[in-house]
Structure formats: C-alpha cells, structure tokens
C-alpha cells in the first residue's frame, strides 16, 4: 500500500485545492508539493475524498477521475514553480489540454497571475497562440483581462498575436484590457500593433466600450493611437453618447476635444444632452453646453427636450445647469405638450418651480395639448406651497381644465379639501389678499421654509 505523505506545504495548500482531485497531492521521496510526472493518482479513502494516493510508473499526463485536470495543469494553477519545473524536465506535455474544460497549463497560470510559471512554460515551448477549443480564449486575452502587464509583455515577446480574436466572444486582447480599464496594458498592446479601431458584433469599438465604462485614461490612450471618435455602431451610437450616459464629465471633455459632436443623434433620436439630462448628470451637461451643445435641442421622434426631462427626473442640479446654459424655461415637449413648470408643479417640486419662475417661466402657461396649467397640476397633487407660489406669481385661480374644472374643483375631487378652500378664497379675493407663502401656519416655520428653498437655489 502506498504511503500517503502530508507535507507541511500541502497542508497549507489544502484550502486552495479543496474540492478538486488534487487537494492533497502526496509525493514519494520528493517534497515539492505536487507529484512528479511519473505519478498516477487514484482515490483510496472514501471517508476523505480529498486524499489521493500515489502509484509510480505512469505518465505525467494522467487525468483526474473527472477528466478535468492533470498534474501540470494543477501545478500551473497553483503557481507551484518547483513542481512545474520538475514536471517539464521529466517530459510533461506543455500544451496538454483538459478534455473536459479545454484549459491548458499556460491559460491556468495566467488566469491565476503566476508570472514565474508563465515564463517557465513559455521557455519550455508553450504556444502563446494556443486557443482554448471550448471557450475560444487566447492566453493574451486572459492576461489583458486581468491587467497583468508583465505577463502581457512576456506573451508578446513570445510572438503572441496582439490582434487575435477569440472565436466565441470576438474579443481581442486590447478590447479585454480597454473594457477593464487597464490603461498601461492597452498602451503596451497598441505599441505592439493592436488595432485601436477593432469592433465586435454590432460595430462596438474599443473607444465605445471604454467610454461606456467611464475609463478616461484608457479613452485617452486609444485616441492617442488614432481611434476614430466619430465612428458609430449600427444604432448610430457614438463614444460620446455612451460617455454622456456614463456621467463622467472629464471623459466627455476628452471626447469633445478629440472632435466628438455634441448634437449628433442616435437612430433612436437620443442625443448626448438629452441622455445626460435624463440621468441628472449636471457636470456632463455643463461640459456639453460649453462644448457647443444646444440647450433647446428637441428629440426628433418624441419631441422630448432636456429641461423637461431633468425636471421630471427631479434633477435640480441638472435643471440649474440647463437654465444657466440657455435652456428656454417655457419650452414645450412637442408631442406631449408638457413644459418644465407644469412638470415641476405636478411633482410638487418647490425648488424647481422657483428656479423656473426666476428664469422667466410664466405661472399661467397652458399646455396646448391637454389644456393643463401649473396651478391645476399643483391642485390635483395637493401641493399647497406650490399652489401658493404660483398664485403669488400671477396664476389664475379661475383657469379651467378641458373638462371645465377650476383648480379648486380639481383639489376637491382629489381629496385635498384644505387646498380647495384656499383656492376658492383666491377666486374671490383681491391680488393682495391672495394666500402667500406666509399666509398660514406659524410665521417662524414659514420663514424657515422659504429660507431653505432660497439656500437650496443658491447652491445650485
């Protein structure tokens, strides 16, 4: 019966190997953590399936019971340099693959970041262009994905192809690095001949993928190597569209400096300013407006405008940025008839209402589609303070909806009896008798409320 040796090294390695056929790899007369190439493994202790016995005389390519591993693959995965060296010296096949997973020693060493083992395998003839037949992955793609600069350099020096395309994903090494934001790896691959304009399914380029992830330095590196900033995918989406959506102002600035066009539309009709407004990216809005974007550009298919989108999203910083950039506060959503003040009143957003009124919005503006006005919207939502502010700024308490309802009627129907009463009083009173922000409740409380709104606006 073979003697099972549990070395101190193997005890340390056991947690790393738990669940594999090489959890405890005993060595007869050799203490380098894994068996030599002549060893054969077979389970002997059903009570502890991690313990594997050793019999001598078989080849180093012997597979584990499930066919997923073999000695050189296991040693490479663990980064056991001494074991790898002995196995290679004894004639283990450096390019052997697992019939179950398609993985091979070089791939495992790279995936687990074992640089010395990678160098050793390459020295003994490992093919840097070997492809996993099941996943289609190349060693260089794996190294680039992990951001392993030294290993990428080793593979390139061994004649790995910087433009190799993975069979299934169509990824190239530089694409894998760009998506992950490994800028130095990207720079190295580009210097060694990688194509900066490679595209995958759907015409997605490296620049688009890096922009979508917000990797500023990576985008800069690609642009320095002549990546096409104006290239679009099959939906007419450019890198600038993706950057605007990502919310990174610095990235948008880089793309604009490289020639990105801030008003270009996608096939869907979206454009960078609208995307940033929807998402509430105030910094991106400021950069786009400074770079030539039109604050009043309209979605050609839906009629959407950035200011309405920002208000409806409750993005106060974005609202302020658009107004400072020249957005018209009375602009109307072409298809829906919605306009910024109507949207703000419907939401009961006091700060947005005040911002818009200060910028020139009219309290009595009416939707030409629905006939709604801000006061009717505030009444329906029970937004007392918004209704009072609108009355102060000239809203007509007798304005009628398309159904012939006045604001007081709308408030009453929605169950806002107190507001309905105030609006009824406003219908019959003089302008200087209308309810104001200070009309109800303890004066200190109302003063504090107004001061809070004013302070918020000053910060925008």
From TrEMBL:
ANK repeats: from-to residues: 101-133, 135-167, 169-201, 202-234, 235-259, 268-300, 302-334, 336-368, 370-402
Record protein name field: Uncharacterized protein
Gene3D superfamilies noted in UniProt: Ankyrin repeat-containing domain (1.25.40.20)
Alphabetic keyword roster: ANK repeat, Repeat
InterPro entries: Ankyrin_rpt, Ankyrin_rpt-contain_sf
Domain of life (superkingdom): Eukaryota
SMART domains: ANK (SM00248)
């Amino acid at each position: 019966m073979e003697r099972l040796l549990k070395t101190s090294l193997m005890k340390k390695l056991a947690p790393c190997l738990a669940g594999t056929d090489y959890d405890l790899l005993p060595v007869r007369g050799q203490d380098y953590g894994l068996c030599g190439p002549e060893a054969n493994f077979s389970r002997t202790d059903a009570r502890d399936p991690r313990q594997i016995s050793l019999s001598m005389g078989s080849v180093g390519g012997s597979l584990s019971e499930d066919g997923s591993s073999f000695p050189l693959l296991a040693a490479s995965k663990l980064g056991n340099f001494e074991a790898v060296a002995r196995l290679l010296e004894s004639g283990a096949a450096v390019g052997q693959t697992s019939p179950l997973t398609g993985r091979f020693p070089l791939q495992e060493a790279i995936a687990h970041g074992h640089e010395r083992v990678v160098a050793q395998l390459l020295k003994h003839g490992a093919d840097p262009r070997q492809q996993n037949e099941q996943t289609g992955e190349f060693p260089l793609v794996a190294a680039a994905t992990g951001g392993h600069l030294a290993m990428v350099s080793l593979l390139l020096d061994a004649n790995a192809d910087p433009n190799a395309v993975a069979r299934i994903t169509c990824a190239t090494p530089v694409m894998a690095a760009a998506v992950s934001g490994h800028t130095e790896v990207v720079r190295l691959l580009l210097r060694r001949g990688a194509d900066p304009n490679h595209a995958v399914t759907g015409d997605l380029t490296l620049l688009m993928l890096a922009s979508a992830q917000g990797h500023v330095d990576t985008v800069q590196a690609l642009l320095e190597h002549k990546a096409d900033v104006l290239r679009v995918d099959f939906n007419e989406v450019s890198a600038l569209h993706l950057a605007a959506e990502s919310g990174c102002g610095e990235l948008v600035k880089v793309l604009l400096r490289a020639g990105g066009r801030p008003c270009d539309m996608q096939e869907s009709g979206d454009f960078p300013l609208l995307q940033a407004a929807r998402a509430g990216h105030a910094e991106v809005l400021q950069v786009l407006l400074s770079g030539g974007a039109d604050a009043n550009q309209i979605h050609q298919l839906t009629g959407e405008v950035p200011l309405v989108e920002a208000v409806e999203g409750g993005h106060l910083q974005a609202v302020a940025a658009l107004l400072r950039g020249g957005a018209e506060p009375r602009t109307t959503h072409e298809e829906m008839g919605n306009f910024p003040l109507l949207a703000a009143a419907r939401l009961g957003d006091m700060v947005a209402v005040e911002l818009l009124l200060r910028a020139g919005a009219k309290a009595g503006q009416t939707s030409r589609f629905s006939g709604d006005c801000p006061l009717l919207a505030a009444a329906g939502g029970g937004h007392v303070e918004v209704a009072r502010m609108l009355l102060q700024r000239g809203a007509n308490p007798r304005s009628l909806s398309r159904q012939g309802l006045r604001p007081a009627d709308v408030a009453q129907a929605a169950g806002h009896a107190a507001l309905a009463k105030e609006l009824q009083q406003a219908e019959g009173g003089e302008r200087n008798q209308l309810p104001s922000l200070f009309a109800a409740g303890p004066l200190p409380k109302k003063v504090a409320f107004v001061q809070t709104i004013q302070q918020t606006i000053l910060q925008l």
